[in-house]
């Protein structure tokens, strides 16, 4: 196999010389015996007969018989990938920017799809917190539903485009109820809204994900903490909230 590789190297060197349009100085009339020579002796023989050459690449000799074929395949794959990348640049394929900025209309549309609307930061002059009122509502935020009353606090998945102390309107109201009436939406209740204030953005307790495949020496342990937003319900609108006052007999 060593002789075969040396012959392959000689053919490559001859091809390189022909590509450079330089007349070969190897005396082909003389017979060269390749048997019994090591690769180092072959290289010294080539350098003594051909003189110094400026080849663009060199071959690495290895004891693995599949190295030559594997390297040829790798070169072909590199050329194909280079062609594909060049074609992609011509077409104009671009990687989407993950940190893109949203416009005001896009923020409002995405927030409305989730089920809320940002009114702005809470001011000191705003008197939003009220006493308890005997009314409740069922609101939908994202893919979750919550039964809330005035003064309750709930934890939802992290809401985008809002900060702490921002006032929100939860406009996906599915049901309203009080001591005197109950309003069921189809699927939403018209002219109904639940006002809330963002109290904090927090992380949920860590959840451990453990994977194991028996008899395979495979164990993977990961942890996850879900991002949450804490909301304080301050008002429910869209239903009559009458309070009966007990009279002394």
What does this structure look like?
Residues 55-63 and 85-95 have low confidence and may be disordered. A hairpin with a 2-residue loop joins strand 2 and strand 3 (144-149). The strands form three sheets. Strands 1-5-8-11-4 form a five-stranded antiparallel beta sheet. The chain has a four-stranded antiparallel beta sheet with strand order 3-2-6-7, with no helix packed on it. The chain is elongated and about 120 Å long. It is an alpha+beta fold and 249 residues long. It contains four helices and eleven strands, in the order ααααβββββββββββ. This is 50S ribosomal protein L21. Keywords: Ribonucleoprotein, Ribosomal protein.
Brief summary:
The chain contains four helices and eleven strands. The protein is α+β, with helices and mostly antiparallel strands.
| Major beta sheet, strand line-up | 1-5-8-11-4
How far apart, in Å, are the first and last alpha carbons?
115 Å
Q: What integer value in Å does the Rg equal?
A: 39 Å
Overall shape: elongated
Decide which structural class fits the backbone. alpha+beta
Strand content: 25-35%
Beta-strand segment tally = 11
Major sheet = 5 strands, antiparallel
Helical amount = 25-40%
Give the overall average pLDDT.
Answer: 78
- Count of alpha and pi helical runs: 4
Features:
single chain, 249 residues, alpha+beta, 4-stranded antiparallel β-sheet, ribosomal protein, 50S ribosomal protein L21, ribonucleoprotein
Helix-strand blueprint:
Blueprint: H1 2-19, H2 39-50, H3 67-91, H4 104-114, E1 116-121, E2 135-141, E3 144-149, E4 153-157, E5 166-170, E6 173-178, E7 182-184, E8 193-203, E9 207-213, E10 218-224, E11 227-237
Antiparallel strand pairs: 1-5, 2-3, 2-6, 4-11, 5-8, 6-7, 8-11, 9-10
């Amino acid at each position: 196999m060593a002789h075969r590789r040396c012959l392959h190297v000689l053919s490559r060197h001859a091809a390189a010389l022909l590509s450079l349009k330089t007349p070969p100085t190897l005396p082909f009339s003389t017979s060269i015996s390749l048997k019994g020579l090591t690769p180092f002796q072959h290289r010294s023989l080539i350098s003594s007969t051909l003189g110094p050459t400026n080849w663009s690449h060199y071959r690495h000799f290895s004891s693995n018989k599949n190295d030559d074929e594997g390297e040829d395949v790798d070169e072909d794959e590199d050329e194909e990938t280079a062609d594909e990348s060049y074609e992609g640049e011509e077409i104009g394929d671009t990687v989407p920017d993950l940190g893109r900025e949203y416009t005001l209309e896009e923020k409002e549309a995405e927030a409305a799809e989730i089920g809320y609307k940002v009114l702005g930061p809470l001011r000191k002059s705003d008197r939003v917190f009220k006493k308890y009122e005997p009314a409740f509502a069922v609101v939908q935020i994202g893919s979750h539903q919550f039964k809330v009353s005035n003064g309750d606090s709930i934890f939802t998945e992290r809401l985008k485009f809002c900060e702490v102390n921002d006032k929100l309107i939860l406009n996906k109201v599915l049901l309203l109820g009080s001591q005197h009436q109950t309003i069921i939406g189809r699927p939403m209740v018209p002219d109904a809204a639940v006002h809330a204030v963002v109290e904090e953005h927090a992380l949920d307790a860590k959840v451990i994900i453990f994977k194991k495949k028996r008899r395979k020496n495979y164990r993977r342990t990961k942890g996850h903490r879900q991002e949450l937003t804490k909301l304080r319900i301050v008002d429910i609108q869209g239903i009559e909230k009458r309070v009966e006052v007990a009279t002394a007999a």
